[in-house]
Fold this sequence. Notes:
There is one protein chain. With 258 residues, this protein is of the alpha/beta class. The chain has helices at residues 52-63, 90-93, 98-105, 129-132, 137-148, 185-190, 201-207, 237-257; strands spanning 6-9, 29-34, 67-72, 120-123, 153-156, 179-180, 211-212, 222-225, 228-231. Strands 1-8-9-5-4-2-3 form a seven-stranded mixed β-sheet. The chain has a two-stranded parallel sheet with strand order 6-7.
Amino acid sequence: MRVLSSLLVTGVLMAAGALPASADNHGPRILIVATSHSEVPNADKTTGLWLSELTDPYRVFREAGANVDIATITGGPAPIDPRSGSAKKLDTAFNNDPSAVTKFNTAPALKDVDTARYDAVFFAGGHGTMWDFADNPVVAATVSTFVAAGKPVGAVCHGPAALLSARTADGQPIVGGLRVTAFTDREESAAGWTGLVPYSLEQRLKQLGAQFEAAGTFQPYAVRDGLIITGQNPASSDAAAKLLLDAVKERASRAALD
């Protein structure tokens, strides 16, 4: 029986002093996964990763002393949704950290990553995830394996699409009965994407038995329920990342007592 715990983040926490990203340390290892999908079928639009949903968590994790790596679904740099930035803004988005930019541009495919090396995984958002996170067996296996090992899984905005196909050891949806959030139907409508996405992420999560929660449109909101941490939208990236760090620290504290 899963032990459920939850935490609503309503404010911004104070961050620790920044560490140089090139310096390895003895902190936890966190893997950030991003989309490789850029095309919107039957529309003259491109999509991909929402840049701040990767760079903001990366910064939060590094400032907390974590070692952070980046992977994408098929390998190589994630396509960046032009509404969120461009490759020309990578240096600025990563706070002029050349190591982070290199990791972004040389990201391995998720299937080639030894995920057992990591203490947590975080799925960045962007509309591209709606096509290559959901129903992806590698993504589903990654989420299920982390949960089975007692390791936290985070996701923000459209990143919770990674949770849709993940199952518990007894075949039940990972999100069944859990409090979660994600980009809402109202936000999809406000963004003008209701008719462009292949499904409603909010409704898919509800159909799997999740207790879907949200704040106002485009307002920051993040929730933790057990090992699953989710953020509602781009403004929730920092909060979701900090909740993931909380879960990592709790796991490390329990391990130290064993």
